Structures are given as C-alpha cells and as structure tokens.
Amino acid sequence: MQDISAEIIQKASEGDLPAFENIYKAASSFVFNVAFRVVHNREEAEEVTQDVFMNVFRKLKDFRQQASFKTWVYRITVNCAINHYRKTAEHKKRSVEFDERIVSEKVFVKQEPAMTQEEHQGFINELLDNLNPDQRLCVVLRNIEGLSYQEIADSLNININTVRSRLKRAREALINFNKVTK
Amino acid sequence: MDCNKIQDLILTDYIDNQMDEKQKNMIETHLAQCIGCQEFTALVKKTVVEPFIQAERFVPSENVWIEIKDNIMQEQSVKPGLWDALTDGMSNLLRAWKPGLVFASMAMLILGAGLLRQYSIYDQELKSAKAVETMEYLSSVTQTQEGGAIDESEGFGTTIEKYFL
Ligand SMILES: [Zn+2]
Questions:
Q1: Both A42 and A113 in a single domain?
Q2: Model confidence over A18-63: pLDDT tens digits?
Q3: Whether residue A1 is found in the same domain as residue A90
Q4: B56/A121 CB distance under 8 A
Q5: What does DSSP assign to residue B140?
Q6: Which of A23, A4, A34, A22 is nearest to A145 (CA)?
C-alpha cells in the first residue's frame, strides 16, 4: 500500500472527498486484492472493497494519528473480508462438489512443463484453497502483499508468534500438496 | 542447533527475511555444511515462495469508487442537522430584511425554530423537507424577495451567529 500523508488523512477526516479519493487510490489495490484472495470472486471482492472504504470514511474522525494508518486500513480490510467470507461460507458449501471437480482438472494442467499465465493464476488459487482462512490470510499478506510479520500481527490482532506458526503450518500444507500432486 | 529447528526457521523467518544478521549468519553457516537443509531450502523456495511472486494483481472496476463516492455524498447531504439548516436559512432571510423589521422577525424566527426543533427525532430527510417548507412559509409571510428557501449549494457553512458578529 502506498504512503498517505497526515495532511490527506486530516482533510479526509473532515469529509473532504478529493482527499478521500487520494486515500482510495493509494489503498484500493491492497484492499481489493486481499478481498479477492479471501472471497475468490470479483463481484464479492468489490462489495468488500466498498464496505471497507465506507468503514474507513465513517471511522476516520475517530482515527488517532499516532496509530499507523496503514495498519488500521489493513485491519479493517481483513475484518470485512473475513466477515464476508463467513457470511457466504454456508452458501458455498453447497457448490463444493463442483469446485472439487474443477480443482482436480487443474491439477492435471499443473503437470504441464510450462504454465500459461492463466494456468499459473489458477494454480495460485489452488494452492490457497489448501489453506484455512487464517493461514490463507497470512500467506496472502506475506507472500502477495509483502507485509512484515509485525504488520501481519497488527492487522490480524494476533501475536507475532501466532503469525509464525500459521505461516509454518500453511507452508507445510503447501509442500505436502506439492508432493501429492507430483 | 539440529536440522529440525533450522528447518523451522528456514520455513518462516529465513525465507521471509525477518531475521537479524546474526541469526541469518547462523543459518547460512549451517546450510554451508548440510546438504539436507540445502535441499529443504530449495524445496521451500520452489513451492511456497516462487509461485506467489508472479501472482496477478487485480484492479477493481471504476464503478467501485463511483458507488463509494455516491454513498458518501448521500450520507453527507443528510448530515447537516435541522438546526444548521434552519440557522443558515435565517441568516439568509435576515440579510434580505430591512433593519426595522429585524427585532420583530427575530422573535418570530425563534418561535419557529423552537417549534422545528421538536422534529429532531424524525428521520433526517423528513427534517430537511420540513425545514425547507417552513422557511418557504416564513419567507412568504414576510414577503422577502430572496433567501427564503434553503439553497443547499451555498446555504451551509454560515450560521446565524456569524450574522450577528
Ligand atoms: Zn541441516
């Protein structure tokens, strides 16, 4: 996520829409991509993105400048995405058989020597599908968004050692998955 | 340190570059003399780091910002409370009035304002509708030429206090 100046944050907190648009421009890529990796669907990720920015706008008045703005936005993003995921998880259970069939077809594709870009993106989704939501978030924040362990801990409101153990378990699962499909 | 502990660190802090130099040197000294851990490191890089390096970044459609902006503007347009709207309307009215009428009209406005305040528990939109209605009524009663109805584009931001300063 790009840096946002204290002046922009101040202006936006007073309701200045152009200032808030600057915040959107700096943060929307992070928000949308994290949401997309959690909910796996463009439309839903856009819903989450809207939700996040409405939350940011409404709560901006109460935002304390001494806290990190980025971490604050990370946290709102993660909460909105997870809430959305949980709300729709029940619905998704019904289509799980269909998803499994798609995954098994993709495993075959993965064995081809050179993956196309599209296949590679499918493979990334497949890898993430092997993880529970907590592990998946840690991997997305670390490997795709490049957050430090401390930033991940702050975003998820967990201990830094919990970040370590989630990443460890997630990666063990990925290594196993790789062995199974080889 | 045994290979299991080393590999735990390789799987997390080492490949994520979350180590200080001292820890990093310790791992690399071990790696230099342990083929098993070298192979493990290569496997980890290949299976849990490299696939994500080329992860596609998605861009939300333009509609997302448009809808956020619309929502905010909608929230902002109902935000100024009845009292603000009313006082703004009053200052507009007062501006148009002849000085001799000010005292008598103030009394009337305060009466009207007190009455309108009762509406504060109602829905915001209802409030502004009522405010506009009442201001139109007041302006027609006093036969002013302008400033009777609340003009949203320029009305907000001034208050009756300012007028009297
Ligand atoms: Zn070793």
A1: no
A2: 999 999 999 999 999 999 999 888 999 999 999 999 999 999 988 8
A3: yes
A4: yes
A5: H
A6: A34
Query: Which residues of chain B lie closer than 8 angstroms to A24, CB-CB?
Result: 65, 68
**Whether residue A81 is found in the same domain as residue A21:** yes
Residue A103 makes CB contacts below 8 A (sequence gap 6+) with: A126, A129
Interchain contact, B71 vs A50, CB within 8 Å: yes
Q: Which amino acid is at A20?
A: F
CATH assignment at residue A135: 1.10.10.10
> Which whole-number Å values give the CA distances from A78 to A71, A74, B132, in the listed order?
10, 6, 43
Q: Are residues A130 and A178 in the same domain?
A: yes
ipTM value: 0.81
Q: Distance from CA of residue A76 to its chain's centroid? A: 11
The last residue of a domain, from among A34, A66, A94: A94
Full-model pTM: 0.68
pLDDT in tens, B91-101: 666 565 555 55
Give pLDDT, residue B155. Answer: 38
What residues make up the domain containing A50? Answer: 1-94
Decide which of A94, A113, A144 is a domain's last residue.
A94
Q: How far apart are CA A179 and CA A142, in angstroms?
A: 23
Please state the domain count of chain A.
2
Q: Is the pLDDT of residue A130 over 50?
A: yes
CA nearest B93: which of B73, B78, B109? B109
Q: Note whether A117 and A75 are same-domain residues.
A: no
Distance (Å, whole) CA B2 – CA B40: 14
Do both A71 and A118 map to the same domain? no
Residues A20 and A53 in one domain: yes
Quick one: pLDDT at residue B129? 57
pLDDT of B149 over the 50 cut: no
Judged by CB atoms closer than 8 Å, whether chains meet at A168 and B54 is answered as no
Would you list which residues of chain B are within 8 Å, Cβ to Cβ, of chain A? 8, 11-13, 16, 18, 43-44, 47-49, 51-52, 54-61, 63-65, 67-69, 71-73, 75-76
